[in-house]
Amino acid sequence: MWKKILSKLKSGKSFNNYYLLVFTVIVLTIVIQSIIQYSLARQRQDALRINVAGRQRMLSQSIVKSVYECRFGTCDYGKLRLAMTQISNANRALKSGNDATGIPKLDNVEIQKNFDRLEPHLNFILESTNDFNKLELIDLEILSAEADKFLVVMDTIVGQFQKASEEDISTLMIIELELAVFSLLILILEIFFFINPSIKKITSQNQKLKEIAWHQTHAFNGHMKNIKNYNHVLKIEKNVEHKEELISFLMEELTDLEGVSENMVKSLEKQA
Fold this sequence. Notes:
Elements: H1 2-11, H2 17-72, H3 77-96, H4 109-129, H5 140-236, H6 240-271
Helix pairs in contact: 2-3, 2-5, 4-5, 5-6
């Protein structure tokens, strides 16, 4: 079965240059679209991760602010608990990923090191504020200092996320550009090596067919004219011997006419 398919491909009867061009365009389109979709997905993930990391800074400040409010004003325990839960969950998602939110798992070693640096400061903030009954015992200066350290490290992490995202975008842009150039090169090569030769071949075949048709038509018309003449003479000729001779001439013309028809068919088959 495969031998038959390969032989057909080689002969060009079932797979010609036009199909190759269409197939190439389809493959290149699919590849380019796949890269574009992948690029958009990566940009979405990076934007989401940067947004969450940036929000961590606000949550750390919100926790400190809520503790101050509990010490010197009206305390909103729900707001404080919500900020603590959000900062903890977001920190876990940024490191380990979260399928629900679309945040991928962290695979950058340098950023992971900064998360390790961040961990003690975050743990201090969460542990010191975990028991609302002991908020009065919290050293606000130490809490504020730990929040500031958390903020500095988180600023660094956000910057690293931003830089990594920009590098990914630059890499994907280069890949897309290279693929576009490659696609253009493939199309140009196909035009020069497949399309133009095919057009020239078709033009040449059409010209040859016209020449064949012209010669065969004139030969065909010549024999038909002779047959009509012999037929006319046969109608008025009285001599039997002459009639027999005319009939033999007529048969020769018919034989020649049959040969012209066969040659025309053979020529057309060769051109096809």
